[in-house]
Design brief:
The complex is a heterodimer of chains A (101) and B (560).
Chain A lengths: L1 E7 L4 E10 L4 H8 L8 E5 L3 E4 L1 H13 L6 E5 L3 H9 L10
Parallel strand pairs in A: 2-3, 2-4, 3-5
Antiparallel strand pairs in A: 1-2
Chain B lengths: L10 E5 L3 H14 L2 E5 L2 H11 L3 E5 L7 H12 L6 E5 L4 H9 L4 E4 L4 H50 L4 E3 L2 E4 L9 E8 L3 E9 L10 H14 L3 H15 L6 E9 L4 E7 L4 E5 L4 E5 L17 E4 L4 E6 L1 H5 L9 H11 L4 H12 L11 E5 L7 E3 L14 E8 H6 L2 H12 L6 H20 L10 H17 L4 E10 L3 E10 L6 H4 L5 H8 L2 E5 L4 E9 L3
Parallel strand pairs in B: 1-2, 1-3, 3-4, 4-5
Antiparallel strand pairs in B: 6-17, 7-16, 8-9, 9-10, 10-11, 11-14, 12-13, 12-15, 15-16, 18-19, 19-20, 20-22, 21-22
Helix pairs in contact in B: 2-3, 6-7, 9-10, 12-13, 13-16
The chains are: A alpha/beta (101), B alpha+beta (560).
Chain lengths: 101, 560
């Protein structure tokens, strides 16, 4: 598990990449990553390209992110989701809560 | 790198029979900042060691009375769990002697004549080792204390769990389940209740996360479930209330994935509300047909407002419903492979006698030798409520003997009220409060509920009952009902209760009037309809005014 962030200053987009298992072990790193969201951040992109698995505490972390990005001028996008991970998001109906790219 | 290594206040015991040596060492070490204790022979060294508990000992090997090696052995015997470095002062270093020193507990040697830099470096390094050792030991001690505390708390919580979650849990022949005693710490809960109207509720839930924090939502969930089920609230209302409470209570990152199943003795439909658990499977045993039931709603505690989708599945007594939390799917074998949906499906498709036992058996084989078997929460519900055998886990209700009284009560519900609440459980509880009729609660609920629903559905909202014959129709029926209820502007249902004593007990008269256009009550009075059961329960059932009014008379007698 590794969480890396990249901020595109020209577009004000913060990209958070999660590699490996997205579970409770990623909790602190994910928190640190979303602490980088500023009022001026336009979009937060979660890149699931290298995410192999996620559990319900990861769903909880996405809810914390959603709670943090609640102003109308900011958006969240989840992208590059592999089928196993998409399934977990869909079971919890998170496809209605997030833009799954 | 100078003073930090001097480890201020460290006490050093120096034992040497040569006064010159003692004084040289004392001045050398004293200059660095240590406290020095001096002993002139082995006996004195031991006595001073006991009295002052030094942090490090410098021992000359050759001393009168007790030599250095003997002193070291005695000190080692005194220390038990503590660690005090011992350094031997030596002028000859034959291997044999050095071996004896090490065997006696010596950590290092210094040679005469001393090199002061070398000496202080050695001492500092040994004192640092001692400090590390002590830190580790105190951390280990603290960890052990925490672990003990944690285990105690888990035990307390586990017993709370039993008391709260199992308070009104009903065991029945139609429900088989596998639930570890520590399931709560995986966030899993299983609740069942027999509700008025001959209904059986099963709620399986899985809170986010693990450990004690995952269990905080269990208590309010159980309270709401048992409380509302007992009063006769519908599954949808219970789910909404649990969501409302958890949304208020839980931190943002926590939620409850859950499913609530309702079986009715008088219905060939199973009602199910799915909120974020993995798919459930409905197996028709003779045909091996499997229907999969995917989650349709958000888990509870996330959304402020919640309108769950309710699904209906046509069932008969050959149908078995399998519910489980993700522990079953994610159970890993030694190679790290998950049991997966395919493991479940293989058992459902191939095992003729008991898929339940087969799944548990295969899971045990799969996870052989691994502890996580504890995570498995697995339920089989046989859709055969009519032949269910009940076994109450909680205390049986005390039989109350209350004399029949004379009273009456009139309740009027406007459309605005009906849009907000379901008054049937409220009315039922009011009746139970005035006249203790717990033994007849089932019958009275059935009468009041049926008459009220007919007045609302067919009277006030002019619904078409034929829709209720198929599962698709049932969903449509409820959708149209919800829509009409919100659209209708005026109207009311008036319920009148009158009670009086009789020779053998009491008589409860229930009359309802609705402001609708009336309905064909004769068409509804068929053996497969709810109203037919009311007919059999009452000594009198009369519809009038084109279906707008109804009077039901229920006679009860004292029981021995």
């Amino acid at each position: 598990m590794a969480v890396t962030t990249n901020f595109d200053a020209s577009k004000s987009i913060l990209t958070i990449k999660i590699a490996g298992r997205f579970d409770f072990g990623a909790h602190q790193d994910f928190r640190n990553a979303i602490d980088q969201i500023k009022l001026t951040t336009k979009q937060v992109v979660i890149d699931f390209y290298a995410t192999e698995y996620m559990d319900s505490s990861a769903l909880g972390m996405l809810l914390v992110l959603r709670d943090k990005v609640s102003t109308s001028s900011q958006s969240i996008k989840l992208m590059n989701i592999r089928p196993e991970v998409r399934k977990i998001l869909e079971i919890a109906n998170f496809d209605k809560l997030f833009n799954l790219g | 790198m100078t003073d930090s290594l001097a480890l201020p206040h460290a006490r050093i015991l120096v034992a040497d029979d040569s006064r010159l040596q003692r004084e040289m060492l004392a001045s050398l070490l004293g200059d660095i900042g240590y406290q020095i204790i001096l002993a002139e022979d082995g006996f004195a060294a031991l006595e001073l060691f006991k009295a002052h508990q030094p942090d490090l000992v410098l021992l000359d090997i050759m001393m009168p009375k007790l030599d250095g090696i003997q002193v070291a052995r005695e000190i080692a015997a005194l220390l038990k769990n503590d660690y005090v470095p011992i350094v031997f002062i030596t002028s000859m270093d034959t291997e044999d002697l050095l071996n004896k020193c090490v065997a006696a507990g010596g950590d290092d040697f210094i040679n005469k004549p001393y090199n002061s830099v070398l000496l202080s470096a050695k001492i500092n390094s040994l004192l640092r080792v001692k400090r590390l050792y002590e830190e580790l030991r105190s951390q280990k001690h603290e960890l052990l204390k925490y672990q003990e505390l944690y285990e105690q708390e888990q035990q307390v919580a586990a017993s709370l769990y039993k008391n709260i979650l199992h308070a009104d849990f009903v065991e029945t022949s139609i429900l088989r389940y596998s639930l570890s005693p520590m399931a709560l710490f995986n966030g899993d809960i299983l609740l069942t209740s027999k509700a008025p109207g001959n209904r059986f509720y099963v709620l399986l839930g899985d809170f986010t996360g693990h450990g004690l924090s995952a269990s905080i939502g269990a208590e309010p969930t159980a309270q709401i479930f048992y409380g509302m089920a007992r009063k006769g609230f519908a599954g949808e209302e219970i789910i909404k209330e649990i969501n409302r409470k958890l949304h208020k209570l839980l931190p943002v990152n926590m939620f409850l994935a859950t499913t609530l199943v309702t079986l009715r003795a008088d219905s060939s439909f199973m009602e199910i509300i799915t909120c974020g658990l993995p798919a459930h499977y409905l197996l028709h045993k003779p045909t091996r047909k499997i229907r999969s039931i995917e989650s349709k709603n958000f888990p509870l505690g996330i959304m402020a407002t919640y309108e769950p989708k309710v699904e209906y599945f046509e069932i008969d007594h050959h149908d078995y419903l399998y519910l489980f939390t993700d522990g079953v799917i994610e159970a890993q074998n030694i190679a790290g492979q998950q049991f997966d949906i395919s493991g479940v499906m293989a058992c459902l498709e191939n095992e003729v006698e008991s898929p339940y036992d087969s799944i548990l058996h295969n899971l045990a084989v799969h996870t052989q030798g691994l502890e996580q078997q504890d995570d498995v929460t697995f339920v089989e519900l046989h859709c055969d409520l009519k032949n269910a055998i009940w076994q109450s886990v909680g205390k049986p209700l005390a039989v109350q003997k209350c004399p029949a009284l004379t009273w009456s009560s009139k309740l009027s519900f406007s459309v605005e009220t009906l849009q907000q609440v379901n008054p049937v459980p409220v009315m039922l509880n009011m009746l139970m409060d005035i006249q203790a009729l717990q033994s007849f609660q089932e019958a009275i609920f059935c009468i009041v509920n049926e008459l009220f629903i007919n007045a609302l559905d067919y009277g006030l909202l002019a619904m078409d009952g034929k829709l209720k014959l198929t599962s698709e129709g049932l969903i449509k029926f409820h959708a149209i009902k919800e829509q009409r209820l919100q659209e209708v502007k005026t109207g009311s249902i008036v319920v009148d209760f009158q009670h009086q004593p009789t020779e053998v007990g009491g008589r409860l008269q229930i009359s309802l009037k609705d402001s609708g256009a009336g309905f064909d009550f004769a068409a509804e009075l068929k053996p497969n309809r709810g109203i037919y059961r009311v007919h059999t329960l009452c000594s009198k059932l009369e519809y009038g005014n084109g279906g707008r009014e109804v009077l039901a008379v229920f006679d009860w007698s004292y029981q021995e």
